[in-house]
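Form 7-S
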Amino acid sequence: MPDTTTRGATLSPAELTALRKHVVHTADGRLAPTASAKPRTVEDFLTSADDVKRMIDGDLAAFVAQQAKKTPAGEVPPPVPVLIWAHGGLTDKAAGLQTAQRQVAWWKKNGVYPIHLVWESGFKTTLEDVLRAKPGKRGFTDVTDLAVEAAARVLGGRKFWDDMKLDSAGACLPPVGKGAPGGAFVLASALRSYMAANSGAIELHIAGHSAGSIYHSHFVPRLFEGDDKLESVKSVTFLAPAVRVDTFEATLLPLAETGRIENLSIFTMNEDQEKRDNTAGVYRKSLLYLVSRAFEAEKDAEILGLEEHLRRSGRIMAYLDDASERLVLGPVARGRLSSTQATSHGAFDNDEQTMMSLARRVVGVPDSDEPDHVAVFPSRTREVGEFTPPPRPEPTAARGAAPRKLALCIGIDAYPRDPLSGCVADATSWADALGDAGFKVESIHNADATRDGILRAMLDKVSSARDGDIVAIQFAGHGTFAPDLDGDETDEFGPKDEALCPIDFRDGQLIIDDDLGAIWDAIPDGVAVTLFFDSCHSGSANRQITPKEFESRTIPAGATPRMTVLDADEEAAFRKERAASPKDEFRLEAWKEVVKVETNRAAVQRAQRVDGREVLFSACQPDQVALETNGHGVFTSAALTVLAKTPALTNGDFVRAVFDIIDDTYEQRPMLSATGELSARGLLTSVHDALPAAASVAVETNGHRAPGELRTAAIVAILRATADLLEAGGK
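Output:
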């Protein structure tokens, strides 16, 4: 992981004061209104707009003048290299300051003026929380990478990755409304002004590690704006870049192709080494794979630092292949300018050969046998910013063990404003029925049914199952609509997604299709998972009832809909949890900047999954309302009746039987979502059980009978009616 502080290390007030000449600190992309000239603690260390201008017009100018004195009389001083460094996303404020403290003297010894962009991020803490077991809860250290990816996506990783991207984009924003500009925007403006007034005095070099490449993708274009825009930036060098390929192609690649970035290079690991890396000893690949598969909007997003993704872009490779030093795939020794021995994602900014190669490029050392006067990089044993995960537990059962039946039953009545009365009863009844069928049941009711609690329990059931096991998950509660934040209509936040409502949903803690899909993707091979959802969440990509249509529905007397509509404040809370709140103009503008350059994300079409391993029984069609009456859900009452009378049904037969016994008074028909042969498999049976001898006729994804079945049923009904008439007439 990217370098942070040595455990127990602190910076003295004198060291912090000295760093004010070289550090631009931002929080949420913003500078502080004021800052102490002599900070005593890390918390006291802030940067204001005046500090940035003082750094460039005062501190940098003084360094340039000092370097000029080294030039022989009568000669024009060469431009002084200025290196602007952006750290990775797992580096917090204290760590960023420690890195600056360690590097500043080294850069200056090499005649380079360093400026470190220190930007706060909660991502490191979030990743640790995802990968580390919480007290009293089962962790995810013994599961497959798919389960880790699912946990990382749904338990906060996606949110904090988006927040981190907003921080980087926000730092580069001009003033929004009556607010101040972002901190990096102020820096870019100050650099442009200085270079316009002091032609040839400095040259700019840009470097970033991991998520620092995301920051620079927004920062570097700001150098080419305005009347005082730069003609060129000398170099941009990324170490294990975590920026998306599409973002890079939209922002920096055009500048490199046209020569405004004179030299753009990437140091990263080759594909084999990337897959031999691990993240915190838990995820058995590099962090960049976790970014691609868990943190980005779409699964398997293409990331610049992954060789296999990089090589898919003919445009990027055409640029990189034009000069041999532009792409360095390590570990490799290729001379002074292109060597790296980093063997993990986090090692690049601490690897001597990588950093020495970077320094030689910045100061202009040729790749030859001439004497090398670059000072040695002060690398050290890495004992920073990392946490020790719990040891992997031993397998809980030997191969060939008897299949297990595992169930999770969730019921929520105690919603603060729109309570229900039959959901806990439903969950209890399902628990009893599944227990009688041999399932080991875990139940979550009311206050315990938070978003975090539900998702962790679902993932625990799925990830702890092994080949041959049968898993059943039941949910009874409200469903609702949420803005589709992954859509391309970013000004309106796109169309609506359906969502399950945990007990804390009004705080933005909704469970949307993407969350559930990430968990179902982690279902191990050979595990059968069946879901019973008694709410208005269908889990499909079919047409959905709109909030307006819901509010106009006539609900039968004595029935209560298991659906609620979010108000403006609740939608804003959801947006804040997932992206940017429309109430914060600055963050909303940053969100638009992020999505604008993620062109593949905007092009993603939400499609029904065609390779799902789960079987989902939903209480109603996507354009209907799930109801409860007489102390139970209409769907649950019918489903448990069928299960008690005829348990040995196929999945398709089960949904049809439930369909047939629901009273026509309720405009509610259950739905089966199952792919492949799953509709013809036995209800709550192992995937290794043989298909029933007389397999059911295929069921359409909306759960209605197929046309052939409807015609047969109609003929049977006519014959029965004719027989009844004849019988009546003969009496």
